[in-house]
Amino acid sequence: MSKIYDVLIIGAGPAGLSAGLYAGRARLSTLIIEKEKDGGQIVLTSEVENYPGCLEGESGPTLVDRMAEQAKHFGTEKVYDEIVEVRLEGKEKVLVGKKGEYVGKTVIIASGATSKPIGCPGEKTFTGKGVSYCATCDAAFFEDFEVFVVGGGDTAVEEALYLTKFARKVSLIHRRNELRAAKSIQDKAFAEPKLNFIWDSVVKEIKGDGIVNSMVLENVKTGELTEVVADEDDGIFGIFVFIGYEPKTKLFEGILNLENGYIVTDENMKTNIDGVFAAGDIRVKSLRQVVTAAADGAIAAVQAEKFIENI
Predict the structure, then answer these.
(1) For this protein, what is any one GO molecular function term (predicted)?
(2) 234 & 254 share domain
(3) Which of 72, 77, 79 is nearest to 99 (CA)?
(4) Of 43, 172, 204, 289, which is most buried by a Cβ count within 10 Å?
(5) pTM (2 decimals)?
């Protein structure tokens, strides 16, 4: 029979590693199950400045490496496997992976969400080198530069407004001729002198020489292609993509309560199933940042400990 862990954690991003740290430190037998590599979205960030206590020149990967080492120090185990089935009802929770089955008294789901990509050539190549999916993370790197925001919903417009605090010019690229954002947000956007709009357009290709310095736009109505080139003095511009997120919750459809694809929890990270918690970007929340993910993981682990004590 498989070992029965006190805590099973799905995902080794900041939420999962934080949960592993707290659970391990509480002397709970803990296993983190990660599909690919540690870190989640934060590993795409070349420099981290807004995590309390981070080192000078901290990058996403270096921060995650230290988190992983800290969790390991307190006895948390880790396995690399992809969970393909879950059985969460009952006293023992079972996670079925491609490599084996894992049994636990509690489960913390911290598998995160991913930003929807544009899907154009050059996007992956220049992620972290001019292409970003987080204005809060990377806005300061583009102070006094020109940036472009892709999207037209609430998040895209709000982030474009945020970027005007840093960039000298912000242009919002939207495939339609009107925004999808709430009217109150639109009013602020149209009143902002540093914010410009490129309507009926999509990004077809991103180019550069080590860093982004040009992109090709297509007008969806006329098919006309236009190449946008960085100012000669700058040599770079930023592209911030906000066309939505994809929470990794397909496994939990029909099992856990979801809202727009995200797991619904209370403030203690509890889901609708006893002993099952969710933490980080995968749950319904107002701010998706490494600091809030780490906090979620800590809360989930403490609540898992309390749940086990009361079994």
Answers:
(1) thioredoxin-disulfide reductase (NADPH) activity
(2) no
(3) 79
(4) 172
(5) 0.77
Whole-number percent of the chain with pLDDT over 70: 98
Report the relative pairing of strands 93-97 and 101-109 from DSSP bridges.
antiparallel
Last residue of a domain, one of 224, 241, 258: 241
137 is a catalytic site residue: yes
Whether 242 contacts 151, CB under 8 Å: yes
303: in domain:
yes
Which of 190, 225, 241 is the endpoint of a domain? 241
120 is catalytic: no
Convert the pLDDT of each residue in 97-144 to its tens digit: 999 999 999 999 999 988 899 999 999 999 999 999 988 889 999 999
pLDDT tier at 44, thresholds 50, 70, 90: low
Q: Which amino acid is at 144?
A: D
| Three-state secondary structure string covering 32-54 | EEECCCCCHHHHHCCCCCCCCCC
6, 137, 281, 296: the active-site residue? 137
CA distance 216 to 228: 6
CATH number at residue 77: 3.50.50.60
Domain range for residue 45? 4-115+245-309
Q: What crossing angle do the helices spanning 14-25 and 60-73 adopt, rounded to 10°?
A: 20
Residue 126 within any structural domain of the chain: no
Helix (H) / strand (E) element for 72: namely helix 60-73
- Which pLDDT score, from 0 to 100, does residue 244 have? 85
User: Is 134 a known active-site residue?
Assistant: yes
Do the domain assignments include residue 122?
no
172 or 59: which leads in pLDDT: 172
- In degrees and rounded to multiples of 5, residue 227 shows phi and psi of -100, 125
Alpha-carbon distance of 12 to 64, in angstroms, equals 9
